[in-house]
Amino acid sequence: MSKSQFQRGQLHRIRLHVLPTQRFKTFSISLYAGLPLKEETVTPVALIPFVLRRGTAATPETIAFRERLDDLYGAGFGFDVYKRGHSQIIQFRMDVINDRFVSSTTPLLSASLKLLGEVLTDPATDEGNRLRAKYVEAEKVTLRKRMEAIVNDKIRYAAERCIEEMCHDEPFRLHALGQMDDIAGITAESLTAMYRQWLSQAAFDLYVVGDTTLEEVKQIVARAFRLDGGEPSPYTSTPVESTPGKVRTIIESMDVSQGKLNMGLRINTAYGDDDYPAALLYNGILGGYPHSKLFLNVREKASLAYYAASRLDGHKGICTIQSGIEIANYDKATDIIQKQLESMRSGHYSELEMSQTKAMIANHLRELKDSANEMISFDFNTVLSGRERSADELLQQVEAVTAEQIAAVARKVELDTIYFLRDGKEE
User: Fold this and answer.
1) In which element (H, E) is residue 139 found?
2) Residue limits of the Peptidase M16 C-terminal domain (predicted)?
3) How many whole angstroms separate alpha carbon 358 and alpha carbon 400?
4) In what order do the strands lie in the sheet with 248-253?
């Protein structure tokens, strides 16, 4: 079974994706809302879900809103704000138990989607139909704290700064939570205007996994979501940018005792490309797992790093390397990491590297089926990339990748940016 099991439909401006299954005792619901990443909108858009979770028109007080979740047998409700390619995406998540397992007189899937519809389209307001000012002001503080937490976590901060420098003239440089300097200027009025714009322009995808049908979900959504008609907004594919050829080196000083050496690579391969499975193997052998080249050669053999790993972003077509090093070891660590990149281009991978990496990726893809939310996240890649590829299909493609195909990906990889976070002392 290579194709996705999700049934597709649409209603109003929402694309519907329903996976009917009795495998789970719960209904897992995810609503994705995506807009292009833009400097002028990224911060207020990030603030929207923080304010929406505080209450709805029917239950405007936050405590009453939480009591409604308790009444749904402790349904889980949460959200994330992140970026995929050049899109800023808000994901609302709900998990509620299937009625068959409790003595509920209320159809719980219907009640959950009704609540989600209210959160999205009928929020708590003040006079003049304005988002509640006290919620806006309180959640501005929350958003600021989230951003400060990134600065305080130096591993995360260095990773974000590397991407910011690498993509300095692209929308991808923007953090999904926005920019600290923009928070103060947001008012209840300006956020209400942004919320209405977001509601009218965002791409909406609603996923439901559980013992239901596409038809049932469609009927509930028709009643629960107050959205205008029209066609769902498409995602535009993110261009895979190539570097001009000169490696940029950025050295930043902060109060740190351990250096953070990060590198940004343009891999010139994206999720929808035929060589994406080979790019997965490339990242896995380079630095994705404990048996990878970076871990073994930089951390274990040379003892140059406290941690050394790589991460692939398939929707942007980049790979980033993160390592924590003694500040004095910058030159040695940079040199040995670049030797690993050269080694990847040579096409010489041991049988063990190949088999272990394929096994790790295969385990991850097989484990997706044990989690409704993981299945949803994986399927959403289809919406973002325009390429339908089931987990089974990707698994078969990964198993078939040869050493030469990985080397072909490696030869397309370009080192773009070296970012080093160090202390302020002179060497």
Assistant:
1) helix 133-152
2) 186-359
3) 9
4) 248-253, 414-422, 259-266, 318-325, 305-313
pLDDT digits (tens, 9 = 90+) for 188-245: 999 999 999 999 999 999 999 999 999 999 999 999 998 887 888 889 877 777 766 7
Report the pLDDT value the prediction gives residue 1, as an integer from 0 to 100: 35
> Which amino acid, residue 402?
T
Give residue-wise pLDDT tens across range 339-367. 999 999 998 899 999 999 999 999 999 99
Domain positions in the chain: 7-224, 248-422
Q: What's the fold here for domain 248-422?
A: Cytochrome Bc1 Complex; Chain A, domain 1 (3.30.830)
> Is the sign of the CA dihedral 56, 57, 58, 61 positive or negative?
positive
Rounded to the nearest integer, the mean pLDDT of the chain is 93
Do 182 and 45 form a contact (C-beta atoms < 8 A)?
no
Residue 243, pLDDT score: 66
Report CA-CA distances (Å) from 416 to 9, 160, 174, 340, 377. Answer: 41, 15, 18, 16, 29
**Segments of the chain with pLDDT less than 50:** 1-2, 427
**Treating both helix axes as pointing N-terminal to C-terminal, what angle do 403-412 and 276-283 enclose, rounded to 10 degrees?**
90
Rounded-to-integer distance, Cα 283 and Cα 318, Å: 10
Q: What is 7-224's CATH superfamily?
A: Metalloenzyme, LuxS/M16 peptidase-like (3.30.830.10)
218-230 exposure pattern, b = at least 16 Cβ within 10 A, e = fewer: bebbeebbebeee
- Measured over the CA atoms of residue 352, residue 354, residue 356 and residue 357, the dihedral's sign is positive
